[in-house]
Amino acid sequence: MSKYAYFLGCLTPNRYPGIEAATIDLLRMFDIELEYMKGTSCCPAPGVFGSFDLETWLTVAARNITIAEEMGRDITLTCNGCFATLQEADHILKHNRDLLKTINGHLSKIGREYKGTSSVVHVIEILYNDIGPERISDMVVQPLDGVKVACHYGCHFLKPSSVRQRGNPENPTILEELVEAVGATPVDYRDKGMCCGAGGGVRAGKIDVALEMTRKKIEAMNEAEADCVTTPCVFCQFQFDMGQTEINNKLGADKYHLPVVFITQLIGLALGLSPRRMGLHRHRIPVKPLLDKIFA
Amino acid sequence: MSSSQLIKKFDTDFTNEVIEYGSKFFEDVENVRSCIQCATCTGSCPSGRETAWRVRKLIRQVQLGLKNAAIKNDVIWDCTTCFSCQERCPRLIPVTDVVRTVRNIAVRNGIMLPRHVQVAGLLIKYGHAVPINDETKAVRKEIGLSELPPTVHSFPDALGEVKKLLDGTGFTKLIEEASKGVQK
Description:
The complex is a heterodimer of chains A (296) and B (184). By secondary structure, chain A is an alpha/beta fold. Chain A has helices at residues 11-14, 17-28, 46-52, 54-71, 80-95, 97-108, 123-131, 133-138, 161-164, 174-181, 202-205, 207-223, 234-251, 263-270, 288-294; strands spanning 2-7, 32-36, 75-77, 120-122, 148-151, 185-186, 228-231, 260-262. Chain A has a 4-stranded parallel beta sheet with strand order 2-1-3-4. Chain A is globular, with a radius of gyration of 19 Å. Chain B folds into 2 domains: 3-108, Fumarate Reductase Iron-sulfur Protein, Chain B, domain 2 (Orthogonal Bundle), CATH 1.10.1060.10; 114-183, no CATH class. Chain B contains 12 helices and no strands. The longest helix of chain B has 14 residues, at 95-108. The chains are: A alpha/beta (296), B mainly alpha (184). At the A-B interface, α1, α2, α3, α4 and α6 of A face α4, α7, α8, α9 and α10 of B.
């Protein structure tokens, strides 16, 4: 059994705990155990805290990484924001000796030291590289035949590519291959590579700008007749799920209701995990139309 | 005004400040000098479609040393840091890294959005930008997870460590100072 240190961040445990449950249960089906990293904080969010003070952002990120180092495990996570912060912090601290000294100076005040012994791996890399679409396909008990899925990667899984070093960010296919592995059909849609609107502190600072970008993406997914949107980022999920309700409230009409499911929740449905355990009944936008189509 | 007179107005202090500050964290920030205003960045910018944010204009302001124009216009906070501009810049300018750098300089000059001061306050108080609430506690319990996640929410000593770090880097004071500017 292989093990990863699970970095929870904020939104997964504090708003979408169903993603936490789905991810733990799904990986366990493939003999991969997620061990909680105890006492972690906000990653801290790259768009806000990285924009406010880069040295603080790096320091708090480095503290979080040291918790996985103590566990002797590589880190995985379910949020592109956490991925952006921890992966970039790890990259910077491995390449910049001056900063390493500064940051470890801060950490020494709390008896910690960043050593650089834990890698940061996104959960969809575990699904794609460690497990692979074929093994996922073999475990399907409820094929998602006829389900059209709009894939949304989120900006920070692959960008900036000079830091992520995970290939060309312009036309990735990992998510589509995983969606196809469970029998569903990924659909092309306008502005597929566009941001959800939430990042960079825009959701926090200027909600109307964020929601307008979200609305355009949802419109495009609706035009492509998607049954749901799937993403490997809980912040994008929050923006699409909560965002549609916020847009509807602004409009005073129930206009947007595209179900939003995390990639481990979507695969979980095909592999027989309970929708309830995965918290799907607690999403803002009802997931029931999708479930009705799958379990018809 | 002739172009030679315009060039006399260049103030390289801000250009140098951005390059010096940014280079502490990022590579190739000095490439900002080589921008030719081709607008690949702005053409790739999803936020620019909805707002007055023109990322190439910020790069020009950095080149010309127009510090106040750059940091005092709150359009710099419209960038979602999607990195499309940085990926596509033909002059290999780390455009989004320049945005992050200029925002840091704005905060150091006491300029923040009011709601960003609030979010910073959440990190300082709870160690989370989005802390737990009663509704999610109930969901966690319902689906078989611990009511409180095993983060700083469950470990007061761990939260103490985070607070100590935020004091040690000067973050707590930085936000305190910036919040005074916001209240004005």
